[in-house]
Design goal:
Order of helices and strands: EHEEEHEHEEE
Structural class: alpha/beta
Strand order of the largest sheet: 1-4-3-2
Helix content: 25-40%
Radius of gyration: 14 Å
Distance between the termini: 28 Å
Largest sheet: 4 strands, mixed
Number of strands: 8
Number of helices: 3
């Protein structure tokens, strides 16, 4: 038996908006679309992210303030080059361009429309 991966399940306020964000802006492929249940799953490489529709303000608050995922990449600069034009069009405060961390990693940060933070990391 082997584990094949994991996917954070992110509470979102608008499933259609989130689908556009992950597919059009972030370049993920949608592998499950179950809008009847307010659920979708996305994959890019080995990274996966699931979304679920939430009307509960506490769940959406958690997404904005406490939910994040670290996604490991081979080259932050290549990912940035691929996404730069679309990421730079996002509202201020949603993207942090590649930078070096004091503890030895290179990262870039992107927040989804509901505030879920993705820390793309190259070691």
């Amino acid at each position: 038996m082997s584990l094949r991966g994991s996917a954070p399940i992110v509470a979102v306020s608008d499933v259609a908006q989130s689908i556009r964000f992950y597919t059009e802006t972030m370049g993920f492929t949608q592998v499950i679309d179950n809008r009847d249940y307010g659920y979708a799953l996305f994959q890019r490489g080995e990274a996966m992210i699931a979304i679920v529709n939430a009307a509960d303000e506490q769940a959406l608050l958690a997404t904005r303030t406490n939910v994040s995922a670290q996604i490991w990449v081979e080259s932050i600069d290549a990912l940035w080059a691929d996404l730069k034009n679309k990421l730079e069009a996002l509202p201020e405060g949603r993207v942090r361009a590649p930078f070096n961390q004091a503890y030895g990693t290179r990262e870039m940060h992107v927040k989804c429309p509901d505030g879920f933070l993705m820390l793309f990391t190259e070691a």
